[in-house]
Each structure stands twice: as C-alpha cells, then as structure tokens.
Design brief:
This protein is 9% helix and 46% strand. The protein has three helices and 21 strands.
Length: 246
Amino acid sequence: MAGFFYSTYRRGSFEIIWENDIPKTRKINDWLPIYAVFQESEKLFLSDKGSLKSIPIDDFIVGKTPFESQESSVFWQKLSGPNQETYLLAAGLFTKDGGVFQLENGGLTSLNERFGIDSKFILTGVLDADSGLLYLGSKDKGLYKVRIDGTVIYEEFGEKEVKGIAGNENLLGLLHSQGLEIRNRETGKIIQVQNQKLKETQSNYFRRFPEKIPEHMEGFFELDPMISAEELEFYELHFQDSFFLA
C-alpha cells in the first residue's frame, strides 16, 4: 500500500492523504512517545524510551498496537552497510546504554567493543561505501571514523558535540554544538560557520516567511524563534544537491 506516513514525538502517527489535490492528515494512533521509525522489509521498528518495538507495516497502517518489543537504548538513526547489514545509532536519554548496534533477524547486537567505540551517546553517522568508512558523531567524545573491518580512527574534534554528518564524495559537513564545519576532501579547505551566522540566517528566514514560525513548541526552548545564537540547538544535517540543511 503506497502512501506517506509520519510519526510525532507526543501527538501520535499520521498518514498524509490527498483530497481534490489538497493534502490532509489522518491520525493512525496515539502512541507516546516515538523518537524514530525504521523500515526493514515489510516491518517497522519503533524507537521508544527504553525499548525497540516492531510491527508489520500493514498492521501499523490500520492502527494496531505492536506486540513485539525488546529492551534497548533510544535509537536515532539507521544506516545500511556495504553488505546490506543494518546499523542503528543510539544515545540514551537517561541511561548510558547507547552506541552502535547491528539489527539482524529482529535482534540487536552491540558493536561498541568491535568498533572501539567508548561513547554511549552516538547521535548521528554516515557511511562512505566506497572507502568502507563509517563516520560517527557523539555527544561527549567527538568524532569517530571507523572502518567496517573494525579499525577505528578517533578525532577529539575540540570536544564539541557532533549533532549531524552529511555530504558527498567531495564535501563532508559536520554539524556541532558551535556551528557547522565543511571539509573539502579535494582541496583540503575547511570552512567554519559559527552559530551567530546560522542565527542570522534563521532570523532572515522568519522575517520573509512568518507563517513558518512554529505554533506548537511543546515546551522545547529550541523552537522559540527568539532564541539566542548561543542557545541554538540542532539535531540533524542533510545534504541536497550542493546545499547543507540543518
């Protein structure tokens, strides 16, 4: 069944439907909370606080409740390996039980020891399939560069919290607690974009499009359009065409 579905933090899951070319939403369930959703074949895996639930896609669409669950950290991102293996990146909210895990046959295996990862708060990552390198950004230990064969190259990265990693074969973007760093692999040039510049971009955007200012902040200070540059929080980094989007 084709369609577009999304899940929110504390407002349930929805389907986007079209009526006379007008998009509308249909609520599917009221599950609270869901931090991330990953698809594996015909099954969905739902990252909850302290557990990873699974449910067939057809059951999810009609609003059924997951009946399979296993204790786990909070997972934030899924990565596919060069041999179609599945990696899940975890950072616990209240427990130090995160890291890198492999999802195989519905079960979880920690890869922290194999990859030499000593951080329990892995927030983001990206795989360079050509070189077999897995880049991992942590909340507390900087940036890891891991060879899928198990060799780890560690970079302290000024002890900055790495929030997002994205790019292509030439550009590598690292979103961190103080701004954005863009590395050009061909030229070796590094561009630093500080939070103050990112704040100016956000303010200009809201002035041009005031309708984009969030209406429902759910108590999250980072959604406040008046937030200062020093208090800016970012969660993801995306690369599209030749642009980085945070």
